[in-house]
Amino acid sequence: MDSSPTQELYGTPGCEYCRISKEDVQTTLGSTSAGLFGGCVPWPCHSFLGQQTPEICQHYVHAPQNVTIEFVDDPSTKYDTIVVSWRPSPYGIAFLRGFQVTLQALGGTQGSCQLFLLQNNLLLSGVHTQRVFYSSPFSYLALGAEYAVTVMALPVPELWDRFYQSTQFFTRTCPEKHGLEHCKTDWYPRYVEVHQNSNATLVTFNLAPEKLGISRYFLVCHGGGSRSYEIIQPDLSINTTHHTHCLAGLHAGINYTCEIAADIADAVRKKFFVQFRHHSTEPSAFPRESPSLAIILSVGVLLVASLTTIFVILYQKRLRKKTLQTEIRPDIIEEYYDKPLDEPQCVALNNSAHPPQLLICYSSADGPVHVRAILQLATFLQKHMATKVHLDLWDALGIMEEGKLEWYCRRMKESDFVMVICSRHLSQKEQSQRKEEDDDPVEDISLAMPAIIAGEICRAKALGQDLSKYMTAIFEYSEESDIPTVLKLVSNYTLPRDLPLLFSHLHGVSLQKPGAHLRVENISENEYSKLPAGAALFLAIQEAKTAQCPTEERTGDYVR
User: Fold this and answer.
1) Burial class (CB in 10 A: 0-12, 13-18, 19+), 507
2) Which helix (H) or strand (E) holds 196?
3) For 506-543, what is each residue's pLDDT tens digit?
4) Class of the CATH-defined domain 357-548
């Protein structure tokens, strides 16, 4: 973590509540203690107070209360600044010596921390529980990003317990911070509906708010080797919220990819799909003669057969609808169906309020490049596949409090899915058998997790229960022989090739159904790397692949 606070002291030399720097700690406590501060981890009591007053470490200080995030105005157009405030707990307040505030960017490893200490001669009592403490400003936070802030009371108790309070928050978006009129390029049409009327294809989209001053839009369509570009200038006297435009120059039977945006520099574009089909308008011919009895009977039979067929179709659709309502989550991400029908649609779904929870287990014995690939995969799953990921790299405080094995077991019980990333060292059973059992598990705890997961799989298999909670995955630089035998009972995915299949597994949706194919944007093997998180995953996999010796020969679970 990045832990380099400034050297400035807040307050007078006799201040009651001071922000200290790493240099101040080194001068006062020595270089060894300063090294602890550089790691941005909780300070055990004996490391900086126990040598002078060891009896103070026998007491307990509870977690702070009312942790609040306050935004601070700054002139930056790309970043945000916050200040954290809190109040001390009344329990153990007489032994309170300070606080440590940690800020962590969710989905990454970057973070920062600040340390605050009280003067040695300052003793707080119950009347000080209403005092509000403030951190120094945390600056250069990306707009619209999610962060977690943790406030810990010092000294940290020797018995690890709930000694800290955490909260998550989003930084302000550009319109929230600077006003919508200063963020024109961030606006784009969020509602786009395509429908075909006779032989014309119409596109309806929402217009920008009037205060943005956007009066022109552009529409680009690609398909069949051709490209069209149109300028749209809606008549605001007719409708100020929506506009319908007729697409021109489309050819029947061709799938088109279109983008619409405000006609300004660097505007965000909205993508949608169109398939134009020609309708026949020939009128039907009816006999002028009076119908005979045979014709009437034939028509009656056909009418009864048609009604029966319609009833069966409606009944099947109703059953399908009930199944979809129980299986398909209508809150995943924006999806598109490539339908060979008369009315191609652009389906937009809301973000999930309760996304599926996924625990990732892996082996760190395969080196830092493999761990980096795991980290980038977890980031991509959480950002672009509507999944809440539990990864030990993101919950250092929880692991320090519970222990690795207890943390993994609790997360495995709470999670909806458990995925084991199989690799070379994970498949070497002899290595895991040489590990000694301990209350605090070995450093590579994932070597023990497959045995625990295998036991759960065998138990579920014996009871005839569903095994879909568990799955395995390998990166393209690994082999199927890296999957332990017992874990081959569950679904396996090769990443990034099988990202759509993994999405289908996590959200319980079918990628194909009669007459339609579900296409999840930016998740296919050819498209995921176009996103920043996908590009980082691609580079991490390539680095891990390069780290593998190209001349080595593998036999079974061993390398020779």
Assistant:
1) buried
2) strand 192-197
3) 988 877 666 566 777 778 877 888 888 888 899 999 98
4) alpha beta
